[in-house]
Structure formats: C-alpha cells, structure tokens
Request: fold
Amino acid sequence: MPKDRGQRYHDETRYHRHRMPREGGFRLEDPEPFKTYPNPLSVVELPPPDEEGGMPLWTALSGRRSRRDYSDRPITRQQLSQLIWGSYGVSGRYGAYYLRTAPSAGALYPVETYVVVNSVQEVEPGLYHYNPLKHHLEQLKKEELGQALARACLGQGMVATASVVFVWTAIAARSQWKYGERSFRYIYMDAGHIGENLYLSAEALRLGCCGVGAFYDDEVNQVIGVDGKEETVIYLGTVGSLH
Ligand SMILES: Cc1cc2nc3c(=O)[nH]c(=O)nc-3n(C[C@H](O)[C@H](O)[C@H](O)COP(=O)(O)O)c2cc1C
Reply:
C-alpha cells in the first residue's frame, strides 16, 4: 500500500544515528519569541493566577474527562485567568527564556493562544489574543463569534455553548530555524501538552473542557484573523460551567 503524506512526513523526518538531517538552515531572520498586537481594541487585565494549592493533581487526573454539555452560567474572569495561565502561562525564567507551564521543544514556544469569549463575567464577548509576558488579553474583535467558530468546527455545538474557546495557533518559523522539517512533530507535541494542561486546569476548577481537533482550518484562521501561512490554527479547546 502506498504511504500517505502523514507516513511520508514521519519517515522523512526521522533522526538516524549516523545520518542526521542538517537542521534549520532556512532562517531568514530571528523570529520574535512573542507576538503582540500593538493596537488592540482594548486590553483586559487578568487577575494574578493561583500558583499553589487547588485540587490535588491525582484527583484532577482521575476526574478528567472530555465534557461537552455546558450550562449557561458564565465563568469568572479569575477562572479565565487561571485557565490561561495553567495551560500556557509564564512560570519561570532561565536567562533570556521565559519558561511556561507547558514544556516546549528547545524552549521556543511556537504556539500562540487566542480566546473567543462567549460568556465570561466582566469580559465582553469577542476575540482576544493572550500576551503571556503581561498576562493580559488584547481584544481584537468585539462581536459574538461563538456561532461562526462552531460552524468552522464542523458545526460542533459545544463551541457555541462554551463560556470560552481556546484557539491555539503555530508560528512554525520559531521552531523551523532550529529543527527544520522536524518542527511540526514538536509543534504538535507542544500543543498536546498545552491541551492537557487546559483539561487539568478546568478539572481543578470543576469546569468542563473538551479538545477540538476537527475544524476547517481556513475558516478558523479567518475567524481569528491569521493568514494560515506564517501562522495557522492547530488545535482548540472549549471550557464551560457544568450543570
Ligand atoms: C487531539 C484531540 C482532538 C479532539 N477533537 C475532538 C473534537 O473535535 N470533538 C470532540 O467532541 N472531541 C474531541 N476530542 C476529545 C476526544 O474525543 C476524547 O478525548 C476521547 O473520546 C477520550 O475521552 P476522554 O477525554 O473523556 O477521556 C479530541 C481529543 C484530542 C486529544
């Protein structure tokens, strides 16, 4: 049977002990490690997250499930802050590197976090980009996007009924200068860590969470306003209150 593109990618990016690929090699310029939007519609400050205590880890792990049925009770701004920090916030520093709650290959952090807010107390519905250095949200759109995003996710209703939807994009260049064609392996591994962090953070707050891998890429990119080339959606996660 002929190999599909996924198998070929995996085969062609293998490391061999005596035949290592020449990594990187197509860096044009140093990619910026953080994206910021200089002229957001507004900035939403997030309260400092709790970095200690909370639900014991084993309790969160054993209780975690994908939950898709949400009540219409909005989550709080404090909970949103905790979810964002818990999934991919800054938790330390090593020289020039700002380390995060999720590990990242080479500490390059190619993933960006956007949130589509449907119903969060004290936060207007709309699209926001997360600034991890400042732990605040940059508002990019001021409209209800839940239905449009749900349509872009193959009509999955939970995307519209969730309080907030995390949309994770990749800026592959941040990884490619170092890892070349192997980058996408690492980018998806990074996304998996971030996704599980969101699941566990939601569980610790007794909220429901579900990862979303089924989406029309171009349509999600359009909703969040990225070009699909330099930056493209790779994964989403919904969070909402439980009944
Ligand atoms: C990468 C990935 C993509 C997923 N995509 C979707 C999705 O698009 N829609 C959905 O309802 N669940 C999705 N899920 C959730 C899985 O269906 C769920 O994790 C699986 O059924 C196991 O159930 P559990 O998470 O409750 O243990 C996804 C999970 C992962 C890890």
